[in-house]
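worker-3 :: picked UspA domain-containing protein
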Amino acid sequence: MTVIGAVDRSDRAPDIVRQAHELGKAFDEPVEIVHVLTRDEFVSLERTTVNETGEPIPTEDVVQIAADIAAEAIDRANVDATPVGLMGDPADEIGSYADEGANYIVVAGRKRSPVGKALFGSVAQSVLLNASVPVVSIRAE
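worker-3 :: tokens ->
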């Protein structure tokens, strides 16, 4: 089993990594830090690569880019963890990945108005409501 920290490119990412690391230490579990590239991010990368090389970007490269973003968050938190890159809908991919053997998921919410939550949704909220394992939600400043 493992502890998963789900990060984006925000300033909150190191806080998520540190909290996941603390849980991992407390329960003697490995820690994996996950970043999911969305379809929009993938399409943006695809356009950039096709424009530069004329060739589409391989899926493995996209997943590696996502893992590199997770690795950056780990480096900023200055702890030991394994970076994981995924591609797709963040809430769905995080939930599916956690179903493969996680004990906990760590996420961070952001302050939003009720209207903003209703209109735009939230990855953290969706993970909280749909995960099959306990979710630790931190409030990062």
